[in-house]
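Hello forum,

I keep getting stuck at the same step: I have a sequence, I want structure tokens, and every attempt I make locally crashes halfway through. Rather than fight my setup again tonight, could one of you with a working pipeline run this one for me? It's a single chain of 678 residues.
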Amino acid sequence: MKLYKICNKISLLLHVLASAAGYFVMEAICRHSFIEAWNYMTQRPLVFAYNAAFIFTSSLIVYLFHRRVFWRVLVTLFWLILAIINGVLLLNRVTPFTGPDLHLITDAMKIANKYLPVAGVVAVCILFGILVILLLMLLIKGPKYQKKIKYRYNIPLILLAVALFAGSTQLALEKRVLSNYFGNIAFAYEDYGYPYCLATTIFNTGISCPRDYSEKEIKRIEKTEKNLPESKEENHPNILFLQLESFFDPTLVNYLNISEDPIPTFRKLMEEYSSGYYKVPSVGAGTANTEFESITGMSMHYFGPGEYPYKSILRETTCESAPYVLKNLGYTTHAVHNNEANFYGRRSIFPNLGFDTFTSEEYMARENEKNPNGWVKDEVLTDEILKCLDSTEGPDYVYTISVQGHGAYPDEQILEDPEITVSGAPTEEENNKWEYYVNEIHEMDNFVKELTDKLADYPEDVVLVMYGDHLPTMGLTVEDLKNKYLFQTEYVMWDNFGLKKKNENLAAYQMAAEVMDRVGIHEGTVFRYHQARRNTRNYQVDLETLQYDLLYGKRYSYGESGESPYLRTRMRMGIYDVTLDSIQCISEADHTYYIKGTEFTPSSEIKLNGEWYDTVYINPTTLMITGTELNDFDRLAVIQRSNSSTRKPLSKSYDRSCYALYSNNKWKLTESAGTNEN
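Reply #2:
Ran it on my machine without issues. Output:
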């Protein structure tokens, strides 16, 4: 009997084995280790079997075609390419490939430039072309199944397999073999497998419609808020939020021995001002989701597993938020972040959250002050926060996102003479990571002291909420922590006008409502709800209904029109305009010029007659260009460019770019900053 006839007889058995082997290879690629893939397979056999069954079920389509070899190769390549994409991404970032990343497929070159060198991009394009040619040859010339396909049997059997797989998914969720809530998406991929997690992030998104959702139900929820007083009409304080990257108290880790308290300022402030534990939606990563909860008052628990609203619903619509609500009371709303503006897509998302201005690192004169890991130090934020407060006469809402404590933390000792030493971790590599992290958050604690010292003397009332966005990426378990909980950091509510101390534990989605309540503001659909209903019966159930109504439902909360009153803001980048004041020729021999003006930063680059020009940053008032003689009617622009590998200009929001025409040794300003949305 010929080999192919034997293979046809045991086709399903071979299909099962190939699916299992293929899935093992996928996990090895994603984990960058065959040993890690083996450990995963042996330690989580049920999860491994489930994902192998997923691949097996998805590949049953081959039994509907005569060209079975072609379709088997195509399905195998589909899963293999997904694994390679994830493996490449995980070499460059902590977050694995998820459903929201599919938005990037429409801009394939952007992905390629971000994660591969130019030679790699060319190689990928060539390989892709060869692959397409080989697939076409296999489709035309490849072997065919010679017998008649019995569709009346094959189709029902395939549908039965799909139904059985769907049933096994539900059973696995009920028995907690799988989970549909991902606190840390990176850990979830490691625990539950790439195929399941990827499919979940693609298909399980948004908030499902609650069973009792109706206009009557929304009106019932609103009636429970009638006990709230009216908002104060004047004397509103400045409201500041400071989200500290991966900041928490490392003395809560049972096994660590730390030479001195790394966060003395934060600890002292917790003793003197309102404070407590801060419940966050993620562990080790997911900054944007803690941020989303803190800004909007909405809980991430009701969204899809591993979902980032910044990458899904907020790309499509505005969302009621603290900035929008406070703007109606006369506040100017600012976002400040000492990382690039494109991180988590904030440059595009913040206008949908109601921010008037956004100062990212590209708009900070001190953006080159970085830690050994390459993240901008948090101490540069003090001046930027004060700029926001000084820029207006009325009250300000400032949401600041720090970055200094960001991982990944080096497993080699890179601090030659650390101020604080750490021991007690299981390995030397982990000790090095902890020692680096502890010294970084010690510097962040010093920044907190500098900021609060300056705000203490500020001539306006200020309330400042400070907290960590999540635990650091250190592989911590519940058993490692004295407080026995992974999804919490700590917060302190500092002020300079004598708010009464009040200690309680809060969730990130409750904090904005709590701050508003403390200063006499009772506005906003979600914030009023938290103020009236926290710790009451059906609090979480009704919150889910309210969130669904505002983001996905008919918006009964906004009256008969069902239209949101919140329009996308015309957000400008940075606080102050760039100006071009003069030009100085400092060398006629090589045509070197000083471009004089204001508000320049290391990210300021000159565009001369439509072409980018090599620019040297001297200081906030001086840029230098060399190599080309300037002539009459040359057109010059100073534009902020992203620090990512794409190096794109930050021009989708109202930027501070300045344009001028050179004529008769003088500059004539032709477009002032912040007047055109590009």
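The chain has 20 helices and 20 strands. If your local run keeps crashing, start a new thread with the error log.
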